[in-house]
Every structure is written in structure tokens, then in C-alpha cells.
Write a structure and sequence with these properties.
Layout: H1 11-21, H2 25-45, H3 50-55, H4 62-67, E1 71-74, E2 79-82, E3 96-98, E4 107-110, E5 128-133, E6 137-142, E7 148-153, E8 156-158, H5 168-189
Antiparallel strand pairs: 1-2, 3-8, 4-7, 5-6, 6-7
Helix pairs in contact: 1-5, 2-5
Amino acid sequence: MNVQIRFKASLGTVEALRDGLTTMENVNARLAVEAMQFTQRYLRGLNRHATAEGLGAAPTLHHERTAGRLEAASDEQFAILRIPRSSGLGRAFHDVVILPGSGRQFLTIPADARTYGRRAGEFAPGDLTFTIVGGRYPALMFTDGWTVAFWLARKVEQKQDRSLLPSDQIYRALSRRVILNYISELREAA
């Protein structure tokens, strides 16, 4: 990013700017913290509960929890926003394929309000039973009424969704604002 500065200043102001901009460490630290805080607010504002609403379930507030797990880091060269791998925000940059882990054969896809945001293992033994619905769709069903609790899938493919995070343009504008504020503070302190 190029920043051009034009102003009339005293020698003291020029020296303060020179000293404050000799290293980018302070600027990068501010950029990282501002990017983290902005992204946290953005994630907390995401109101995507279509699946929960469709099942009549309470939202899990996954993005709200993810916001609290973001981390800011910086050094002389970089301002870094660390996003946990398990956040699901990788979808902002690429398609994601989810496969069962730990020797499991299937992923569980909630099909009922009682299962949304929960794992099959959280239910008591005997609450769920494996069945094939319609002769071809594997599922776990509640034994008390034979309602589908979870659909079972060997993999889930999720398409890229760049709107899960602020756009690159927004981050660039944020960076410009932070840098200009930093320069203004250096000028005022001189």
C-alpha cells in the first residue's frame, strides 16, 4: 500500500514522523488489532440461521463464538489476523469438502430441531437407530416416533462464500484509515 503525505510542517514534526515511521512494527500492530476487532464485529453481525429456522431450532451462534477466537499478531513486516481452522471461515476463500473423521463412515446432518447443533453421540443409547429411508437414504431416526433425527452423508461439499468475511476493499479502506490516524497522532504529538 502506498501512502502519500503532503503538508507543511516544522522540523520537529518531520522528525516525529521519521521516528514513528522508521519501523512498521507499531503500524502493523495497530492494523492487526483493528482488523481483528472489525472482523469480530462483522462476524457477530452475521445473521444466517436459515437451517435453524427451517428446522424450528435455536441458532447455535457459531459465528458469534468464532469471533471471540480470532487473534491479532504482527511484526516488522506483517499485520496478521489469525482465524482458527475449525471456524468454517475457510469457505470465504475456497470450496470446502468435509469428510467423516476418526474412523467414522458418515457425517451427521441434522434433520430435526432436537438435533440441530448437537452430535449423535450426545443422545442416550437407544434414542437413535440406523435405518435406510426410501430404500436409499441412510439416516438415524428417533426410536420414540420414528422421525428422522440425522441424515447421514459420506461427504459434504460447501461452495465458497466470500461474504463470510469482509471484502478485500473493506480491509484496504480500514488499513488506510488506521495508517492515516497513526500519522495524525505522530504529527499531533510533535
